[in-house]
Amino acid sequence: MATLELSQFYGLMHATIPVRRVLTEEILASRVPAPGGVARLRETLEALEAIPEEPAGRRLTLEEARPIHVDLGYEIEELKKDLVYLDRGEDALLEDLAGRHAGFREDVQAVAATLGGTVFQTLVTDRDGTVNNYCGRYASSVQSVYNAVFLTRFARARARRSVILTSAPLDNIGLADMTVSPPGAFICTGSKGREYLDPKGHRRQHPIDAAQQAKLDLLNRELDELLAQPGYNVFTLIGSGLQRKFGQTTIARQDIGGSVPEERSERFGEEVRQLVRSVDPDDTFFRIEDTGLDLEILLTVEDADGGAARDFDKGDGVRFLNADLQLRMDQGPCLICGDTASDVSMLQASLDLAPETKAVFVTGKDELRQRVRDLLPGAVFVDEPDALVAALNGTSRC
What we know:
Number of domains: 2
Distance between the termini: 48 Å
Radius of gyration: 21 Å
Strand content: 15-25%
Number of helices: 15
CATH superfamily of the largest domain: HAD superfamily/HAD-like
Largest sheet: 8 strands, mixed
CATH architecture of the largest domain: 3-Layer(aba) Sandwich
CATH class of the largest domain: Alpha Beta
Oligomer: single chain
């Protein structure tokens, strides 16, 4: 197969979204999955595996046919797992997952024991790294069929309301676009809970001060002009790409495969910092966080206790969603699922509202586990998203 352009690869992955949505609906309705849909996924897997593989990764091309090497592990392995599930059934998939992940069965049992037969008032979960395996590029992190089925079963059987709360954008290559679960199974929220789609599909947003929004709009226009210059489009295609979130803008300067020469990445990062300084010379509106791969440009919020301005966090998102959606988290036990330090604020907010909160975190990091235990000694930990998702599916039948 001829080498694909990166944009063509994204097109290939996006074409699986409607196919996976139909397959998910068919399984949830106890119908036999349509052979045509399964065949489309198999063809996509074959196309990805035909992309030339070199020591640095699968070779795609960027502008002017310049090669880029990317890790397509997520896309390929999720398609393989879907095909095991669709061809051979749930038991075969669970065997496959147990062979992939050490301690898988023990982790599944630990989650099941912790959740018991509880019906939760609200489930609030992060997505990537928690209930979805990590992908190097958000724009191709399409949810798998098995993942959508397992999560939807739990949401329908064991939670009165279910929320996916992520720092990613809500749409325009965001959470709602990558989600395969049926409409209404989950409330999709982006930008750390600052924006969401209500059960009828209407967009709702946490209010932002007009002066702040004007500054963010100006920044985005200036950034668009920078990215429109020759040679800069690459930063919209690698890694996280360009993500316009509500109250935040993210632009990649590198990806996990080091596709951009480091000097060029650093130079671009400095240009973005200079752009932000030109828009906000007194550091009144924005804070920049450089992850080494992405530049996160964040609108600050006033601290409720009168302290210094700070970032809007996922705990703020939980409180906003609880009030705006009338989740009534205080009326029953809640379940919080996360995988990073940024998710700890979700747990704290839930505990403030619902002392009966339970938590599952997907992490092997001792420091994070201790932070979670300090808040909730009975929290349970697993090593892989697949273990959590399989456990939720299993407990949906209790």
